[in-house]
Amino acid sequence: QWLSDRKKRALQKKDVDIRRRIELIQDFEMPTVSTKIKVSRDGQYIMAVGTYKPRVRCFDTYQLSQKFERCLDSEVVTFEILSDDYSKIVFLQCGRFVEFHSQHGHYYKTRIPKFGRDFSYHYPSCDLYFVGASSEVYRLNLEQGRFLNSLQTEASESNVCDINPVHFLFAMGTAEGKVECWDPRTRNRVGLLDCALSSVTADTEIEGLPSISALKFDGALNMAVGTSTGQVLLYDLRSSNPLIVKDHHYGLPIKSIQFHHQLDLIISADSRIVKMWNKDTGKIFTSMEPEHDINDVCLYPNSGMLMTANEAPKMNIYYIPVLGPAPKWCSFLDNLTEELEENPESTVYDDYKFVTRKDLENLGLAHLIGSSLLRAYMHGFFMDIRLYHKAKMMANPFAYEEYRREKIRQKIEETRAQRVQLKKLPKVNKELALKLIEEEGEEQQFSKKRKQKNLPSLLKDDRFKVMFENPDFQVDEQSEEFRLLNPLVSKISEKRKRKLKMLEELEAQGQEEEEEPEGKASDAESSESSDDEKGWVEEVRKQRKLLRQEEKLKRQERLKEDQQTLLKPQFFEIKEGEEFRSFKDSAKKQKLMKKTLEDRLKLEEKLGTLNVSDTTVGSKQATFKLKKSEQQRKQQEAEKRHRQERKTLRRSASHLKSRRGRGQLFH
Fold first, then answer.
1. Neighbour count for residue 216 (Cβ, 10 Å)
2. Which positions fall inside the Nucleolar protein 10-like second domain (predicted)?
3. What would the pLDDT profile of 237-260 be if each residue is shown by its tens digit?
């Protein structure tokens, strides 16, 4: 696909594998786009329509090549092969034209009142039923060569139609999401299905009203309906509820529906994917997702071959052996598939390297995205293997050396694994880890004899892993709690060892079933346990006495240190011109100096040392009162007290004089 035609021809001369490639039908393609593809009833001819320019091509399967090509005046919406071969064809064109072709070419051309979207041929009456952008269904009788009375429906527009091949019931899908069924004999409507309501289920998400985009009958009773929102509904004509609802999960209109009777499959396609699923269970059989958008799907009768019309020049042909045998005109495909199954070979791109976007960023080639040096494929790109090697050498010139070192390290580790492995103790709580390892070994021996399951080790448990890694969990053996608890821990471990030894002796002697030894053993255990308790109490008392003595020694040392330390006086120098008041005043002064001028003015205004007033001119006048020193303040207070004392003395003297004049002085 990446090569030009000239390079392809050059490769075909040189490469044997390219010469062996299969091209079923020569030039099976359209100039630009293919829109519809159909197979004649005898299976000999495949007809396809497309653009540009609008044309129809007929391919002869017996000759594996194109039989003829005819150009048309306007694009074809859909077409129908009326005969067993290509001798009678009807084309519905986008300009409201209906064109008839015979074996020799163009035969007749007529026009319908409104734009058509689909049509069906009723074989018993030779009527063509046209549906489109109208509420009417137009009927054209090919035997009489004239239009008949149209069918009046309730729909505003119709998209698709189909006629049942068994009882010739005419069904049409409307833009409102309904299917109307008509009887051609009486020209009356016999049924109405609301598919838009039935397509909404708990698992589906629908945006807008779903219209009918595909319609296909299967036998006398089954009918499949495709919606514009990507759902396929399978109906039994005797029920208004669907048997199964299948969602494509793409939200795209269903373009085509086909039935495969051998495996009970329904082949439904939207513009992106072709899905094959079981019509009873809805289980996916397989799916195909071509590179280009799909316009139509055609299943070759009684075979496993599929053909698709795409938004690309080339029309795809798929052969799936599970669906059925190959057609008789290409029966050699069965032998090829059998050989491929016997000798499976994976496809290897020798000249290209697949890289992801992250790989390109690591190589420094992200700027090549979108250029001809990178070919987009799936979730990455294909690039020339020579360019990849050059870029890798420039990005990491020591890659081979690193690879060599890694291989040497792996070999050394493999040889080390054959040596005797020593148990490594953790860096934190080594004594506790050693104790746990010893106890674990004893318990394993005991469990083997008793045939019990081993308990998980604390060293391997992730919940206690931090206790042997973090130094904060280091056990302080000099702490008061550990020293008081240590006698109990040591005694418990000794007791466990005694029990294990005693059980081993009992097992060796085989006296487990006798009653008297059990009594003796229990008495011995009780006596030993009482001795252990007494010894533990004594050891705890000893530890407490030692702790008290240590506390006394610490207190005495503190008292000695306090007595030895002498209080030395500290001297502070006062600047010249300043008077020492107190340390608090200096701290206040420092805080006040850190404040802004505005804050200091507000504070002085509160204290009364500053007076701010407005003048007649509009400016402000500020009057400051200087602060007095501490000595001046004390002198003023002493003068004030002295003046008050003198006033009191004067008052008392004048009072005495007045009383003497009156003769009222008493001793």
1. 19
2. 348-396
3. 998 899 999 988 888 999 999 999
